[in-house]
Amino acid sequence: MSITNQASDTELIIQAKEDPDAFGALYGRYVGKIYNYIYYRVGNHHDAEDLTARTFFRALKHVKNYEERGAPVSAWFYRIAHNLVANWYRDQGRCPIVSLEAVPASDSLDPPEAVTLVNEEREQLLNAIRLLPADRQQLITLKFVERLSNAEIGAIMERTEGAIKSLYHRTLTALRQELTIQKNDKRKNQVTTNSKLNAKPNQRSQQL
Question: pTM of the full predicted structure?
Fold first, then answer.
């Protein structure tokens, strides 16, 4: 059975039940995306490469059991990757994280002061994201890193498109609230620091 680059994912997955070359074509289409998704969830290349390989090994092992249920084939790969990442976190005894590289960076041509400010904002955003539950971190990764639609994310997370929209808005609200708290805390710390610095010259003058 011939394999062409024009074949749809559905055609390839059907062929892959009998022909390993068809699965190889699917692998070529999605290995980069699945690797990126896993990397942004685990934060290091070594484990991302290992989990990506395990994702496609598991998919190949179970490809004959694949059933078309209206969701894109890519959703099947993402769900396998998500389950492996969840198991990885459980085995490692860690809390889910999102890599700093998942947060949009500034233009490298910006002035140093602007780059520093934007990087500080990225770090604050990352800290806020890391406080989110695992499903909301997954949503952020799929939405802003993989740039998937709500329908595609719903297929991956096994939720309706409406549920994804609702979760997305709740996630943004939670992020805004946390960022506001961080900014207020930072402002209070700066005021406290400035007060201490201003108090020191007065103390020295009194001693003189």
Answer: 0.70
